[in-house]
Amino acid sequence: MSDDLKPRVKPAMSRRMFFHGSAMVLGGAFLAMPATAATQACRLTKSDILGPYYRFGAPFRTQLAGPDEPGDRLILSGTVYSSDCRTPLPGALIEVWQANHAGLYDTDKPGNFTEATTFRLRGLLLTNEHGKYEIETILPGRYPIPPGLPGLEKYAGLTRPAHIHIRIMDSLHVPLTTQLYFKGDPFIANDPWARRKRSLAIALKQEGKRRSGVFDIVLAKGL
Ligand SMILES: [Fe+2]
Prior knowledge:
With 223 residues, this protein is mainly beta. It has one domain: Sandwich (Protocatechuate 3,4-Dioxygenase, subunit A). It is 4% helix and 26% strand. It has 2 helices and 12 strands, in the order ααββββββββββββ. The chain has helices at residues 15-20, 37-40, and strands at 73-81, 93-98, 122-126, 132-138, 143-144, 159-160, 164-169, 176-182, 201-202, 204-207, 210-214, 217-218. Strands 1, 4, 10, 11 and 12 form a 5-stranded mixed beta sheet that branches. Strands 3-2-7-8-9 form a 5-stranded mixed beta sheet, with no helix packed on it. A hairpin with a 2-residue loop joins strand 10 and strand 11. Bound molecules: fe (ii) ion (FE2). The site of fe (ii) ion has 4 residues, from loops. Fe (ii) ion binds at residues 51, 53, 163, 165.
């Protein structure tokens, strides 16, 4: 295993250390690989948990990370399809939220959907007439699961692979909540969620100073 792919986060001893000492940047951990899962085989996109850091009320925007946001720039794009993997869904509502480059969300209070926040690295957007979306953001940092989360006590301290949370809604399809991961992330193997859903891991390409990745989404028809 190359140095780039070796785990670099040690278990932390305190809540403060969880959030400020152990989080890390992805750096050059991920290699460029072709294609996306949804275009290779027609399967519904797998769901995943909402996670403890969802907040209701994020603003509409496609630029999640402003120019001053630290981290490796990432252009994330894709198409939302119906269950045939061919029919694009215009006007689908997408909500995205993620940690910053150091693995920190804009709140450190898990499980409070309505806490007032500045909504950093969160946003809502709509797919265009071709079912496509694109956001500008940064690569999220990894973070350890904090202690004391009801139902997740046994995972406290486990470093989650880097991920971006996504919710997708369309009027005639089943809403989907999921997370996307990044191929080559060594923390996927031990993650209780990502390890069973390898199709949610996308490849990244280097384009100048930016990375880019494609995450196509296939929703189940609701009738
Ligand atoms: Fe998360």
